[in-house]
Specification:
The chain has 24 helices and 18 strands. The protein is α+β, with helices and mostly antiparallel strands.
Length: about 650
């Protein structure tokens, strides 16, 4: 929860809204106060995450203002979007039968996570209050009605997604949002612009609609080609008419966070073909029906089936299937961040499948199943969600502590074999073995929680260059497969160790001080020297690596681990380390750097050339050089922010 302090007038207004809600309507003042004493009214910030439904006694969760998404997570750590909660909507109805003594707790092997989409006020209503209110007939009738509506909504949503899956190969990892589908910026006209001028704007920009904004740039209407034909030409009216005379007022709009199937539903239900995208009060883009269909995802179900049904022998086929998806995404000019989100989900699925096959392989060879709980983690670009093409392997294993000496040897032998099996399966897919041997088949990259604790202590006590390098690679870790409880224990241990490793973090930060981002002088060409020439930039060395290192160190200082760079950015804003504006600058710089790296790697891949992260200035346009210049200045500011803490 954020540190936001609720003002008294806000609290009064919210309590009145709660009292008027069907769950509490009709209660006396004293009854209501008693119920509110047990409930929790909280304010959450955008992107904040809430773990919910650990027990049925958590009751209901009511969104008073704002919006939240509900994800369900399995024991394997896979998350799937379950539903979107709008204002005045509730989650927790699956508990009702339990409260009425009609069923056991319904969710035993899964966990629900809520992610706040926009700043929200929410009310947590415990089971004790829910049970007390269910004695009221009016409340029971309301709950029954809401359950029926929710069930219908769930079936409708499920049916829509199944239909999309049948027609276009849609699947969970490929559900896009409005912000990924829209054209931006939206072309706008003013209320007083003439019909003739509006028509010229459409012709000039090759578009079939314009958004009408007022003097404050707020969306007030929309004009389409159809409007010009029917409302002007068809009526024989003069071209001197203004936008305000022919526009459609209060058009249907989409939020940047709306999903593909929600947007498609708006088009179908309302018979429209143009949909403005509005974030708060700001017009940020527009989606057309034609654009929505032309940018649909291709072959998702087939890819997932290829991954899940693959054996060791046909694992290489999966790489080509994923590269086909990548080709489509690049061809459709999908944003870099979203492209990586999609591809990362596919690679994650593939990596999990390889670990599962490795476990099965050992069992078939007579070594049995894992003797104790274990977790498998990725490091490097895969862990950061930046894996664009298959590179080398970076991963490690953690398993439960064993006190029995004889059994400990058996456990160590088993995970030594499992580490090698995992490496072989990933190699079969196309992941090269890590030259630095940072893989689970190496003794240093596997062990019990206690052994990992000792390892981290050794790194922090002896802050050598080698240990700092290991630390940087390790700090990018992300849990991908295995026992969720063991993972939580491991994370807790790591965070505890890092709190006592301030000297180690100091030396890590000092290394950044010794590798400053090049200063800008007359031009970008004066920045870098390669054999005496000032003609290139290494996008990893001068941008991505310092960005990762700075975010990693700052994240550790704020107790943030096991996160991607974008998640770290959100966390550093929530903890007050970054302002929203600074975080947005870093996010933009990050996307610029990733886009440059991806474009370079993909072009070389298509030409069959060796991968490289160097960009030659004479191979890019002037505006691209300017964009790189601005990006590097932002990385320099991030580095300065970290060094100021030394």
């Amino acid at each position: 929860m954020s540190d936001y302090t609720m003002r008294e007038n806000e609290r009064v207004a919210l309590y009145q809204k709660i009292h008027d809600h069907p769950l509490f309507k009709g209660t006396s003042e004293s009854e209501f106060i008693t119920f509110m004493t047990d409930c929790q009214l909280k304010h959450y910030q955008q992107s904040e995450k809430i773990v919910y439904f650990k027990t049925p006694n958590e009751g209901l969760f009511l969104v008073l203002e704002g919006k939240a998404e509900v994800f369900i997570e399995s024991e394997k750590g896979l998350s799937v979007l379950l539903e979107v909660l709008q204002e005045d909507e509730i989650i927790g109805f699956s508990h009702i039968a339990h409260y009425l003594n009609q069923s056991v707790y319904p969710i035993l092997k899964h966990r629900l996570d809520l992610e706040i989409v926009e700043n929200s006020y929410c009310l947590q209503i415990p089971a004790s209050v829910v049970k007390a209110r269910l004695k009221d007939d009016a409340v029971r009738e309301y709950v029954l009605k809401e359950i029926a509506l929710r069930l219908g909504s769930v079936y409708a949503s499920l049916g829509e997604q199944v239909k999309l899956g049948d027609e276009w190969g849609k699947s969970e990892p490929f559900v896009r949002r409005a912000i990924d589908l829209m054209s931006s910026p939206a072309i706008t006209v003013q209320l007083t612009d003439s019909v003739k001028d509006i028509a010229n704007v459409m012709i000039k920009n090759s578009i079939s609609s314009v958004m009408v904004v007022d003097q404050n740039e707020q969306l007030v209407g929309i004009i389409t080609e159809k409007d010009l034909v029917e409302r002007v030409l068809g009526q024989g009216l003069p071209n001197s008419l203004c936008a305000v005379d022919i526009m459609t007022l209060k058009p249907f709009i989409a939020s940047p966070h709306d999903h593909y199937y929600e947007i498609l539903s708006i088009f179908y239900k309302n018979g429209i073909k143009h949909l403005p995208v509005v974030d708060g009060h700001a017009l940020i883009g527009v989606i057309t029906f034609q654009n929505l269909i032309s940018k649909r995802d291709r072959g998702a179900m087939g890819i997932l089936k290829t991954i899940e049904e693959s054996s060791f022998d046909n694992l290489p086929v999966v790489k080509e299937a994923i590269y086909d998806v990548l080709t489509s995404l690049i061809g459709d000019e999908i944003s870099t961040i979203h492209t990586l989100e999609i591809i990362t989900k596919l690679y994650d699925r593939l990596a999990r499948h390889c670990v599962k096959l490795a476990v099965q392989s050992l069992d078939k060879k007579g070594f049995g199943l894992p003797p104790v709980a274990f977790s498998w983690y990725q490091m490097g670009s895969g862990a950061r969600g930046e894996q664009f093409m298959l590179t080398d392997q970076d991963h490690f294993l953690v398993y439960a502590d064993i006190t029995d000496v004889q059994k400990k040897t058996l456990v160590e032998d088993y995970f030594s074999l499992l580490g090698e099996e995992i490496v072989q399966h990933l190699e079969q897919v196309g992941y090269a073995r890590c030259e630095g041997k940072m893989m689970a088949n190496e003794e240093i990259w596997r062990g019990s929680i206690s052994e990992w604790q000792q390892r981290l202590q050794e790194w922090s006590i002896k802050a050598t260059d080698e240990h700092i390098l290991l630390g940087y690679n390790f700090l990018s870790f992300r849990f991908l497969f295995g026992n969720v409880s063991l993972n939580k224990a491991f994370i807790t241990m790591v965070q505890s160790q890092l709190k006592n490793a301030q000297t180690f973090l100091y030396y890590m930060a000092q290394q950044e001080q010794n590798k400053p981002i090049p200063q800008f002088e007359q031009s970008l060409f004066s920045l870098f020297k390669t054999r005496g020439r000032l003609d290139r930039i290494d996008i990893k060395l001068h941008a991505l690596f310092p960005m990762h290192h700075c975010l990693q160190i700052l994240g550790v200082l704020k107790n943030l681990t096991n996160q991607t760079p974008l998640q770290l950015l959100d966390g550093l804003v929530q903890t007050g380390e970054f302002s929203v504006g600074f975080a947005n600058d870093i996010r933009h710089a990050y996307e610029v750097a990733l886009k440059a790296r991806i474009q370079l790697s993909w072009k070389k891949h298509l030409r069959g050339e060796m991968s490289s992260t160097e960009i030659k200035f004479d191979s890019i346009r002037r505006w691209e050089r300017d964009e790189l210049k601005t990006m590097l200045k932002t990385v320099q500011s991030l580095q300065a922010h970290l060094l100021a803490k030394l």
